[in-house]
Amino acid sequence: MGPSGLACDSKGTLYVSQYDFAAPGRAGLILALDPYGKVVHEIAAPAAELTGLALTLDGMALVATEASTNAVYRIRLDM
Predict the structure, then answer these.
(1) Which SS3 state, helix, strand or coil, does residue 14 take?
(2) Does residue 23 surpass a pLDDT of 70?
(3) pLDDT band, very low/low/confident/very high, at 30 (cuts 50, 70, 90)
């Protein structure tokens, strides 16, 4: 459907979570954009209805909230 959450790291990378209606087995999507707006990574999330996004204090993981499962997921950044 569209963007639903934003987080920015100290290097200027902007992480944008995408909200999409849940379907069985459908993964969610988080885009990583460089400071110029170019998509540099696509990160799979465990579920599709992402509603919020934050970085951990050490910048090593994203924390995403998800509506269909009422869950909070920690997603490691191995980029």
Answers:
(1) strand
(2) no
(3) very high
Neighbour tally for 7: CB within 10 Å: 20
Burial label for 35, CB within 10 Å (0-12, 13-18, 19+), is exposed
8 A C-beta contact, residue 60 and residue 77:
yes
8 is written with which tokens? 């920015």
Q: What tokens does 15 get? A: 């992480």
- Strands laid side by side in the 61-66 sheet: 50-55, 61-66, 71-76
pLDDT: which is higher, 24 or 42: 42
Average pLDDT, the chain: 91
Q: Identify the DSSP state of 26.
A: -
- The amino acid occupying position 25 is G
Give ∠ CA 64-57-18 in degrees, rounded to 5.
25
